[in-house]
Design brief:
With about 250 residues, the protein is an alpha/beta fold. The protein is about 45% helix and about 15% strand. The chain has a single domain, classed as Alpha-Beta Barrel (TIM Barrel). The structure holds phosphoenolpyruvate.
Amino acid sequence: MRKLVVGNWKMHGGLAVNGALLGALRAAGHAPCPMAVCVPFPYLAQARAALEDSTVAWGAQDVSEHASGAYTGEVSVAMLADFACRYVIVGHSERRALFGDSDERVAAKVKAALAGGLKPILCVGETLDEREQGVTEAVVERQLAAVCRLAGADALAACVIAYEPVWAIGTGRTATPEQAQAVHAFLRGRIAQWCGADRAVATTILYGGSVKPQNAADLFGQADIDGGLIGGASLVAEDFLAIVAAAV
Ligand code: PEP
């Protein structure tokens, strides 16, 4: 599997507005490429009911690295599995920056997700400062290597990777297709080195950061960009479906 487009709703939505959005995705019929939506925890049951037996998968935006216990406010992998989630986003830059998710904790979440049968969407990406200092590759390599070191090469190879430059998320500022392709090629190269060439070729590497219907085709036309992780534009069915169509 290489092509995939995933919506990250972040902390947006409500029962009524979700119903319309999920209904429109379902009604789009057979998707030209695999697609999924990662919704806030309280709406997993709604997503499941709306999307079951459709071509649209669903998942969550984070998960605890712990199996169960006294972790107030946390949600476990088994709980996500109870709602038939296929995917879970781990290491989103908002979790890393605002909620203290370290490389080590992200690796533990990847390990837990895989053990529970979920597909992690592992986010990596540099800040604007880091890009300007010329350390983009070092940053994404460190984020990827932590998963390889702590969860193992098999775990890394089992993830969907999402390259999301922090400076492009929700800012309207997109990496150029060439900038994004360069990092994607670097990531695939590292996966080849650590996990083997065949697995690197099979790994889905998504781009995320202000993807819109207007720029999706140029980004997705790059050799190592296999689709997108879409924030703002995934909240509008027409835009999200146009982005999915651009990934074919
Ligand atoms: C995201 O939240 O992962 C994201 C890429 O957001 P946006 O598309 O709004 O930049």
